[in-house]
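tokens incoming
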């Protein structure tokens, strides 16, 4: 995988950072994207480059904005010729009953969790087709397969990602390009941590009850999925060993959707 270039959205923390780290360790050039402290991000970027001997870039594109996504992709293609591996990971969450769900939150979740992936995919595909090789990995969720109360926008977006994954996998199948969706259960990330207070409020229970009776209740293992586990699956899907795996909606959720 050396000399290939991977762009991972939402990669300054959480699952995205775990995936970007794994790719860098394998010798891929990495383009980071996300929000955070500028000094910390620059330290992360330079650390990737010096430790692994790769090219590491950072793009601060706001994935709710089409123009910024287009600029990010154009810059990546200009600098590297192609985005060989595209990981659509960026996501946001809001928890509320549907009749109380803020319209601006709905619009933002659909934009970042679904529409942004449409834009990155459509812009990455031509160069992938020219090389007759590419990997697109969408970080969906167990909520691409099942629903939970109070998460109407998130569940709708993730179900949309599942459909987008299957459709583009079929369109790209004869071009050496695979496209799959990884569907994690609850991973202990900042996104999960931030939704706990809102879930507690929506359900009228304590935050401890949210963790034990809502989040981990859904996973028969009673354990949070680890970031490294998701990163390992992404690295496999990016490899030549996974050339015949495409259109997959692949759960990694401790048995949640087996129930």
């Amino acid at each position: 995988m050396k000399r290939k270039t991977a762009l991972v959205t939402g990669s300054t923390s959480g699952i995205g950072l775990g995936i970007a780290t794994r790719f860098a360790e394998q010798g891929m050039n990495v383009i980071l994207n996300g929000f955070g402290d500028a000094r910390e991000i620059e330290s992360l970027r330079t650390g990737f480059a010096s430790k692994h001997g790769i090219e590491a870039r950072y793009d601060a594109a706001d994935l709710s904005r089409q123009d910024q996504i287009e600029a990010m992709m154009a810059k990546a293609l200009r600098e590297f010729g192609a985005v060989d591996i595209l990981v659509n990971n960026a996501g946001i969450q809001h928890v509320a009953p549907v009749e109380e769900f803020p319209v601006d939150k709905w619009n933002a979740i659909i934009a970042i969790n679904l529409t942004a992936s449409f834009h990155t995919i459509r812009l990455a595909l031509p160069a992938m087709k020219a090389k007759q090789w590419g990997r697109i990995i969408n970080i969906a969720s167990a909520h691409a397969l099942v629903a939970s109360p109070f998460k109407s926008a998130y569940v709708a977006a993730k179900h949309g990602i599942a459909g987008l994954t299957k459709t583009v996998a079929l369109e790209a199948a004869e071009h050496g390009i695979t496209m799959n969706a990884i569907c994690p259960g609850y991973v202990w990330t900042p996104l999960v941590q931030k939704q706990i207070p809102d879930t507690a409020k929506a359900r009228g229970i304590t935050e401890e009850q949210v963790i034990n009776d809502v989040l981990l209740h859904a996973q028969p293992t009673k354990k949070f999925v680890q970031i490294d586990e998701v990163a390992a699956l992404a690295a496999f899907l990016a490899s030549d060993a996974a050339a015949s795996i495409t259109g997959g909606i692949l759960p990694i959720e401790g048995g949640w959707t087996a129930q």
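note: The chain has one domain: 5-185+226-258.
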